[in-house]
Amino acid sequence: MDLSEHGTPAPEREALVTKSPEVAKSAFEVDLISDPVELQQKSNAQREAVALKIYSQLGLDKAVKYVDYNIATRDEQHILLRAYRSVGSSDGKPSPALVRFHGGGMLIGSLDEEVALASLLANALGTTVLHECYRHTPQYKHLTQHEDSWDGLEWILAHAEQLHINPA
């Protein structure tokens, strides 16, 4: 099912923005960007900068370690998964795991924008946090994001021992 036709702003919204340019201001301190790839790049850059600053300011860069994994998908492409674990959590037992998918409407999101939150969760909960970074629209059409997420979950379960997690 191809739903890509729904990936553009509604004509009513475009008319509103034309009549009232102040509506076009976004929370990212930039004017409304109509090109989704440009919006994706600028939003990700701003969100990553904030996350990396918080990550460092809270000392999470010293409290949590992370490892990136390259995961093959069903269509022979690859996605990244980042596994976060508290530095002091190596008691020899597999840890519980929290699988995290970033928000962003399948357009916005990256590994680095989640570094502060995922590290905070891993450190506070004493669990392994696994953040999958699925492929985004508009570069990849709908269902790719869901399939990537499922492929990543299957990879996590198949590699629970390597990740040192309890898959139960």
TrEMBL record:
Coiled coil: none annotated. This is Alpha/beta hydrolase fold-3 domain-containing protein. GO terms for molecular function: hydrolase activity. It comes from Fusarium falciforme. Residues 98-167 form the Alpha/beta hydrolase fold-3 domain. Signal peptide: none annotated. It comes from the Eukaryota.
